[in-house]
Amino acid sequence: MGKQKGVKDMNTPELQRLKMEWLAARESGDAEAQRKLLLDHPGEQAALVDFMAGYYATETVALEENATLLPLTQRATQKALERVFVAPAVAANLAELRRNRHLSKVDVAKGLRLSVDVWNKFESGAIELVSLSTRQLDRLAAYFQVSIEQFSTLLNSSQPAVSFNRRQTREAARNEQQSLQKQSFTDAIARSTMSQEDQQFWLDA
Predict the structure, then answer these.
(1) Of 35, 32, 82, which Cα lies nearest the Cα of 57?
(2) pLDDT tens across 53-89, in order?
(3) What are phi and psi of 183, to 5 degrees?
(4) Which of 2, 30, 51, 93 could form a disulfide with 158 if both were Cys (CB 3.0 to 4.6 A apart)?
(5) How far apart are CA 117 and CA 105, in angstroms?
(6) How many whole angstroms separate alpha carbon 39 and alpha carbon 22?
(7) How far is Cα 31 from Cα 22, in angstroms, rounded to an integer?
(8) Distance set, CA 44 to CA 17, 60, 109, 128 (Å)
(9) Cross-strand pairs, 183
């Protein structure tokens, strides 16, 4: 029971927000912002350290190279790496990956600064993998602490749930089929309910 509660607590909206702030600071090369994020949030520091260590592990970057940048990660590096490599999350698709992380669709959407409708398209496999930039894939994969290759495979494995009804008209069937067609990430963002700020956050990546 205690373990399940701990896992759930680690996925609070506030922690997910801090993870995305750290990723943005890392992408911009702002070492001071990364350091300040850890120091200003002592309550989430341990979880953030684990997230950072897992991120570097999946990215196959030597943590020693970042020792001066993130000295606080040294204390938890070994423990976090053991969790990453010894007990990897097994998932068949993105929906299963999300559930394995004990996250709701709303949690993921908020944590990634996406709208729920866009995340639904990811889970249904409607987003074209080739439309995602390396930085966008890196951001998505890092959120779930998996590699870019793993996230890409899970996206390709995600399939829409198509329902068949003998009484369904041809027009309704055609409309349903069109709604399940692949589309680019940029197009999905443009058609979404996301704020202009969040849209720009992803379009600039």
Answers:
(1) 82
(2) 777 665 544 444 444 445 554 444 444 444 444 444 4
(3) -150, 160
(4) 93
(5) 9
(6) 12
(7) 10
(8) 11, 24, 20, 34
(9) 127
